[in-house]
Amino acid sequence: MFYRTSGQFKTTYESDQALFPIKQDMVLLVVILAAMYVVFPMFASEFTYKALLVPVLIYSLASLGLNILTGYAGQLSLGTAGFMGVGAYACYKITTIFPEMNIIVALFLSGFFSAAVGVAFGLPSLRIKGFYLAIATLASQFFLVWLFEKWAWLYNYNASGAIEVRTMDIFGLVVTGPNASPMVQYYFVLGIVSVVTFAMINLTRGRYGRTWKAVRDMDIAAELVGINLMRAKLSAFAVSSYIVGIAGALMVFFWKGAAEPNLFDIPMSFQIVFIAIIGGLGSVMGNFLGAILIVALPVVLNLLPEMLGLSIGSATMEHVNVMVVGSLIIMFLIVEPHGLARFWALIREKLIIWPFPH
Amino acid sequence: METFYNVLIDPFVQMYGMPDFFLQVLWEGLVSGVLYALIALGFVLIFKSSRIFNFAQGIMVVFAALSLVGLHTFLVPFVGNEFVAAAIAMPLTLGIMYALAMSVERVVLRPLVGQPDIILFMATIGITMFLIGFGEFVFGGENKVMITEALGIPTGAIEFEPFGGFLLLEEKDVFAVVMAIVLVISLLVFLNKSAMGRAIRALGDDHTAALSVGISLSTIWVLVWFIAGVIALATGVVWGARAGVSFALEVIAYKALPVLMLGGLESVSGAIIGGIAIGLLEKVFEIYWGQPLFGGNTETWFAFIFALIVLLFRPQGLFGEKIIERV
Questions:
Q1: The model's pTM
Q2: How far apart are CA A150 and CA A153, in angstroms?
Q3: Domain ranges of chain A
Q4: Which CATH class, in words, describes the domain spanning A20-353?
Q5: Integer angstrom CA distances of residue A140 from A82, A121, A265, A292, B227
């Protein structure tokens, strides 16, 4: 009914392979973007920004980065949080060494550092595959967190060992530090996430995306048809780590405001892997759906007893929360192992042919 | 030149200069290595028989130890005697591990049969999260003391004087090593001699062939998860005696991962040799290289980097099955 495709004729290959082959998809996207840019800021409180909107966006971005590597190029990585840390620390160092630099430029520069580290730790992927590679990426995770702790130059020899974000502005508008308004930070994060997502949608549709998918499906076969495996795998590591690094920098500069090394420890890596898998590997939209579920669900669960008028201790609530999230993950894996994105794809297909079943 | 000396010569001079201290370091490394090997063994058993990379092994250690201590504290007022309470708590904990194995098979594994490896791996992380929440919910999140004495584990220390120096072996560490050896030997006997053990190995060799000769998949899976649970309980007892029972114990699961990389995911002997090798090497590296040169705490990553370097030369680990790929 909403997805009637009659009358939309494809007369060229370009129109058939366009970003939106069906007009309704574009309408839907415009509606979502309008909600994100206009409707949410009209109603959101400071709590909603800090606990829901900004975290969901940042985690989506990190998961998008991981999805490039795991979902498109087929290299399972458990070290995402470590690369986020590299981005955050790089951005911190750049802004202390060049205090005059625009924060946007610093953000996009810091991604290059995490990309370089990612390529270095991606080199073993040329020899090692499957679970061995997954464990190998844990090496980067543990090593990087250790480095953030021990290398005092990284946190400017602070006594606390943590990095703290100072107040910075863009053309007079305060965007980071304790004085920044949550709404400004939200718009800033939203803008960057939109730009990166747009770039990634097109990258994964293009030559690189198709190369990665070929490597994912069968790397020996891909090599036989003339794909340079080294270039494909390392480029996936580079692009993935670049995005993940930006997400890490965003997390510290526009959400947390300060960070200790153990923020980038292994639980966050797993959380991001969960987002990517629950959302759907090999899909851009899945990351956002997954992040909404994994990040927002615990927040909502925490609020739930209060709304129902029950009084449960916060510690107990925390435990029940972890339990519920764990069971939900298992349930989602059983119900739809291909993730939420697949759910949407099925619904969309049904809608297109509705009211007919086939 | 200075660095060159510090890295390549000075550590060995110190090892030679204080042989008793070096022996002490080796002993400590051996004890943790044996425990890493035990955890890795739990991983290997499950991976061999079901191709599931069971991330929950670490939390199973915590959960088993917590259940034991929790049941014991619960039972002491009823029974009145610490030792009797421990004697009742032990089989009850084993029962809990069996129930856990069964519910994991029923609720999680059976619906997920045939899914890609990564999905099953994620499911075990889901189990991990569930057990963390459940354990904290039932037993509370605070640290507990392992009931070492009620279980009859000796707590004294043995002293030696080799090379005119001084060497101290804690009796509970000796107990840990002995128990690990007994456990491993009985496991090997079970796997090699009993019908069930042969069924497990058959399943590891070829799923379809094993099914076609009438081996029940679900029975074996429950059995394997239960054995992993028993190993987890043993590890939890001895590690808990060393460091107390808390959710921080879960991190030793991460220590078992490089052991698996080094030894190979399918190899029982690889898990044992890899575990001991990593235990020894990371201790020696930490004391003689890590602390003087890198500011310490290198144990968090040394094993991973070491295993990674080995893997670059042998991509399936030292003892793993050779990976043959066909197009």
A1: 0.87
A2: 9
A3: 20-353
A4: mainly alpha
A5: 7, 7, 11, 27, 32
Q: For residue B314, give how far its alpha carbon lies from the nearest alpha carbon of chain A (Å).
A: 9
CB A149 to CB B127 under 8 A? no
Q: Is A320 on the interface with B (CB under 8 A)?
A: yes
CA distance A44 to A56: 14
Number of domains chain B is built from: 1
Find the CB nearest B133 among A266, A277, A323: A323
**CB-based contact, A272 to chain B, within 8 Å:** no
The confidence score (pLDDT) of residue A90 equals: 92
Range of the domain at B64: 21-313
Beta-strand relationship, A163-164 and A258-259: antiparallel
pLDDT tens digit string along B118-150? 888 888 888 988 888 888 888 876 777 777 777
Q: A221 — contact with chain B (CB < 8 Å)?
A: yes
Question: Residue A50: its pLDDT value, please?
Answer: 81
Whole-number Å distance between alpha carbons of A230 and B206 = 33
User: Binning pLDDT at 50, 70 and 90, where does residue A242 land?
Assistant: very high
Instruction: Among B100, B108, B112, B118, pick the best mutation site for testing chain A contact (most A Cβ within 10 A).
Output: B118
Q: How far apart are CA A154 and CA A162, in angstroms?
A: 9
Q: Is the dihedral of CA B148, B152, B153, B158 positive or negative?
A: positive
CB-based burial of residue B193 (10 Å sphere; 0-12 exposed, 13-18 middle, 19+ buried)?
exposed
Cα dihedral across residues B253, B255, B261, B267: positive or negative: negative
Average pLDDT over residues A209-231: 90
Cβ contacts (< 8 Å) between A138 and chain B: which residues?
254, 257, 304
Report, as ranges of residue numbers, the positions in chain B whose pLDDT lies below 70.
1, 141, 152, 162-165, 323, 326-327
**Residue B116: closest CA among chain A residues belongs to which residue?**
A337
Interhelix angle for A314-335 vs A266-279, to 10°?
40
Q: Pick from B118, B130, B298: which is nearest to A323 by CB?
A: B130
Cβ–Cβ under 8 Å, residues A293 and A272? no
Contacts of B254 in chain A (CB under 8 A): 138, 142, 266
User: Is the sign of the CA dihedral A305, A310, A314, A320 positive or negative?
Assistant: negative
Name the amino acid, one letter, at A341. Answer: A
User: Running DSSP on this structure, what letter comes out for residue A165?
Assistant: P
Q: Are A85 and A148 in contact (CB under 8 A)?
A: yes
Nearest to A127 among B136, B300, B312 (CB): B312
Residue B327 included in any domain: no
Q: What is the CATH number of the domain that holds B98?
A: 1.10.3470
Interface probe with B: pick from A140, A149, A227, A334, most Cβ of B within 10 Å: A334
